[in-house]
Amino acid sequence: MPKSVKICPKCRSAKVHLLTNVSGWLAPQKFICMECGHSGPFFIDVDLEDLKKE
Known about the structure:
By secondary structure, the protein is mainly β. It has one domain (4-53). The protein has one helix spanning 48-53; strands spanning 4-7, 16-18, 31-33, 39-40, 44-47. The strands form two sheets. A three-stranded antiparallel beta sheet has the order 2-3-4, with no helix packed on it. It has a two-stranded antiparallel ribbon with strand order 1-5. The radius of gyration is 11 Å and the shape is globular.
């Protein structure tokens, strides 16, 4: 089980997915937020314990 999760820096949603299948292999990893549509390489890693506290 993962100990951390990525959240969107714009809306703080945890509904974040990789943008393409080749991210991290041929190109830097890029993510997209399924809530607000924000995309890019910089998303915040948060411990699940800290996320549950909020």
